[in-house]
Design goal:
- The complex is a heterodimer.
- By secondary structure, chain A is mainly β.
- Chain A has strands at residues 4-7, 10-14, 19-25, 32-38, 45-51, 56-59, 62-67, 72-77, 86-96, 99-104, 108-113.
- In chain A, strands 2, 4, 5, 9, 10 and 11 form a six-stranded mixed beta sheet that branches. Chain A has a five-stranded antiparallel beta sheet with strand order 1-3-8-7-6, with no helix packed on it.
- The mean pLDDT of chain A is 92.
- Chain B is an all-beta fold.
- Chain B has strands at 5-7, 10-13, 19-24, 31-37, 44-50, 53-56, 65-68, 75-79, 88-95, 104-105, 109-113.
- In chain B, the strands form two sheets. In chain B, strands 2, 4, 5, 6, 9, 10 and 11 form a seven-stranded mixed beta sheet that branches. A four-stranded antiparallel beta sheet of chain B has the order 1-3-8-7, with no helix packed on it.
- The relative contact order of chain B is 0.33.
- Classes of the chains: A mainly beta, B mainly beta.
- At the A-B interface, β4, β5, β9 and β10 of A face β4, β5 and β10 of B.
């Protein structure tokens, strides 16, 4: 089955610097890659996603890139702020019959220090 | 649209009791996923259901755990004869019936076994 690996497991950055989280996936049929942010004690919330027919997507300070050949995708956060501190999860959706099943990475704890 | 609703938010059970966790998907969503999250760990897939159908239960422990998603009413995750190791946050997510659409998470149920 699909296996999603996420690195690093923890990331500490100075406020204003950039943060990059990388994920790799194993199933070349995966076609949808969302990123979720989970603040302490709260639900994971979708922050950005990318589909397999697109190489890059940007939304203000957040961007995601996808390299289908290498089977990896990355989250980029620029000009980090303290409120960016959270756990970030990547996911890959694997075709399953006519639908899809999500497989999550293990998460990255991001700490933004003032 | 009320979003994905889970109840109860917090559940305390004594060892040996049964725990029933409920998840009402977003309007128009017919697919439900259940995930378990231990403290400071990632999201572990448990089961993927469609109305009246279990699509994939490869992440469910073989004993004591069961899930259903009836034609009417919420999806239920049932844990029989709970043990201390079952203490965790249980999240459900729902999505539409299509290949590359996002999943939205509920607030989670935090189960504590005493």
């Amino acid at each position: 089955g699909e296996n999603v690996e996420q690195h690093p497991s923890t990331l500490s950055v100075q406020e204003g610097d950039s943060a990059v989280i990388k994920c790799t996936y194993s199933d070349s049929a995966s076609n949808y890659f969302p990123w979720y942010k989970q603040e302490l004690g709260k639900r994971p919330q979708l922050i950005i996603d990318i589909r397999s027919n697109v190489g890059e997507k940007k939304d203000q300070r957040i961007a995601v890139t996808l390299n289908k050949t290498a089977k990896h995708f990355s989250l980029h956060i620029t000009e980090t702020q303290p409120e960016d501190s959270a756990v970030y999860f990547c996911a890959a959706k694997v075709p399953y019959d006519s639908w899809g099943k999500f497989q999550f990475g293990a998460g990255t704890q991001v700490v933004v220090t003032p | 649209n009320a979003g994905v609703m889970q109840n109860p938010r917090h559940l305390v059970r004594r060892r040996g009791q049964e725990a029933r966790l409920r998840c009402s998907p977003m309007k128009g969503h017919s697919h439900v996923y259940w995930y378990r999250q231990l403290p400071e760990e990632g999201l572990k897939f448990m089961v993927y259901l469609q109305k009246e159908n279990i699509i994939d239960e490869s992440g469910m422990p073989k004993e004591r755990f069961s899930a259903e998603f009836p034609k009417e009413g919420p999806s239920i995750l049932r844990i029989q004869q709970v043990v201390r190791g079952d203490s965790a946050a249980y999240f459900c997510a729902s999505s539409r019936e299509s290949m590359n659409t996002e999943a939205f998470f509920g607030q989670g149920t935090r189960l504590t076994v005493v």
